[in-house]
Amino acid sequence: MPNEKPIVMDDEPIHLYFGLSYAHYLVLPRTALQSMPIEWQRRFVDCLRELGDEIEIGPEWPLAYWVTLKHLGTRRYASLAKNEPLPAYDKGRARVELNSERKKRENKK
Q1: Cα separation of 26 and 45, whole Å?
Q2: What is the total count of domains within the chain?
Q3: Is the pLDDT of residue 65 over 70?
Q4: pLDDT at 46
Q5: Cβ(34)–Cβ(89) under 8 Å?
Q6: Which of 26, 27, 25, 30 is nearest to 86 (CA)?
Q7: Can you give the three-state secondary structure of 75-96, one letter per residue?
Q8: Domain containing residue 53
Q9: In the chain, pLDDT over 70 holds for what percent of residues?
């Protein structure tokens, strides 16, 4: 298509977000996601649904992948309980304090 602009990698936000890594996937902790404000969560879920509508990733999307925690230095499997900085999602009840909330709380002191 003669009038179409070529894709320049520097213009693609996802490519820039991943940087120079060779990462094939982005894995996000559920507890961190559900700790975000509700409107943010709605936008995030809408984006995931749009992705699923536009690209057929697999028959079980988004449930087709398992993530295994490995120690970065040794590449050995790691215990989630010992190495996880965030609490387990606890059936949707667990939350972590957002930096913006912590800063507001600290400024009130």
Answers
A1: 15
A2: 1
A3: no
A4: 95
A5: yes
A6: 30
A7: CCECCHHHHCCCCCCHHHCCCC
A8: 28-108
A9: 68
